[in-house]
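Supplementary Text 2. Reproducibility record for the structural model of the 544-residue chain.

All settings were left at their defaults, and a single model was retained for analysis rather than an ensemble. We include the record here because the model underlies the residue-level annotations in Supplementary Table 4.
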Amino acid sequence: MVIIDFLEKNARIKPDEVALVEINPALQPEHSVTWREYSLIESASGGKFRREITWREFDRQANRFANLLLTRGVRKGDKVAILLMNCLDWLPIYFGILKTGALAVPMNFRYTAEEIAYCLDLSDASVLVLGPEFVGRVDQVMKRLTGIRHFFFVGDDTPCYADNFESYAGYCSSTAPAVELLDSDDAAIYFSSGTTGFPKAILHSQEALVSACLVEQKHHGQTKDDIFLCIPPLYHTGAKMHWFGSLLAGSKAVILRGVKPEWVLQAASDEKATIVWLLVPWVQDILDSIDRGEIKLSDYRLKPWRLMHIGAQPVPPSLITRWLNVFPNQQYDTNYGLSESIGPGCVHLGVENIHKVGAIGKAGYLWETRIVDEQMRDVSQGTVGELAVKGPGVMKCYYKNPQATAEVLRGDWLCTGDMARYDEDGFIYLVDRKKDVIISGGENLYPVQIEDFLRANPKIKDVAVIGMADERLGEIAAAIIEVKTGETMTENEVEDFCLELPRYKRPRKIIFAQVPRNPTGKIEKPKLRERYGAGHLVEQQSTM
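Retained model, structure tokens:
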């Protein structure tokens, strides 16, 4: 079985039921009625505030794009990159790629122009599907994109080098292409990065994608009557693999393009959402808005909302306690995972284990776990070691990087790089991370990238970036800056210099101090964490 079988089954047995809804609150009409009443109303900019497609149309759109790709010479094993914000077209494009036997290559919409070029080259992508938000970045590196044979544009004002996705796909057959697919076939490449900040390409098979569907549906019990409110970006394995439970159940999902507290609650209310996956900052913002009186729960109909779950970053137990005090009729759950393990689910807490909030749980459905020492020997209960996982969702390899693959794959076991321990009941608690990746608001920040950028400042002698605990974001990036002798520098100068960085990469705390290095020249970050209070107990690791 391959993953497109689930889509085609849904199109066959429930063709007229709604599969996907897109809500764009930025186009919200200025009337005090429910959002659902504006499904067909055009905004002043020409966009629709709310759009939806049925399972039949979802499958037909995927078939049209698959046939379009085939007319452009795309064949089994080719790579097609997706650089889009969340939208109604995202998933039909993803499945259209898979129907050709090509590999889907989702890309982080926060990538800089340099990162876009690097990842396209690393993955051997020959086709790029992009949206209007990325034209400027792609233009900057166009001369380097020699491997891209075709560009498809989703939106209006198509650039001269691209074909309009909707116009061209509309002329193609809506019948599924005759391409034989096997569960062992390569299916997708996702990106991860270590402390160097240079992404690695993670290769997954059809079997891994199918396993993600089974794991998610098993953990959260999606039925045909559930409605999943999807807010995180679809390039992220977390959002995609959680939606896979809806795919397997044949239930509706709502893609919300925005994270304001009132938008989340309004969408949950109007669409009768039963499952919502949130990140820690969004939970914090919703609760704070309620506390300040900016949001009145009596304005919303949230009774159908049965499950709130969080992933992608450390989850403070106190935050969950606070949430359940406000929403006592909801269940809470969390998952642990990595992109190397096809996203969340290899470790799972379970709604029945609310008394263990703070743990990431036990081995998920179809998964096994171990906590090991450097020689892959199991450590005793309570002893800290590295978490290793084994299951059908483990990556095949880091694409074109056998050395990095060998560092994390030990036979069938994936070494996660996360230090953990078992408690007396077999629940897993994360203690620390081997890597220096900073998890801020669900996004990975790579200290070396920020350090290299800051070192370009002529006043800076040395710099180290570490993570500091933050109640809302989980962690923030703190820059310890050693100024050159005879120079002076202020926080405002550093902040102004960092304006060229994407907002989420800018250090949120500046410390002027000496940067310690060991005899081999490596920054002694453990000392910095101890000195500045950055070390803290990690309660949940992000999807890498």
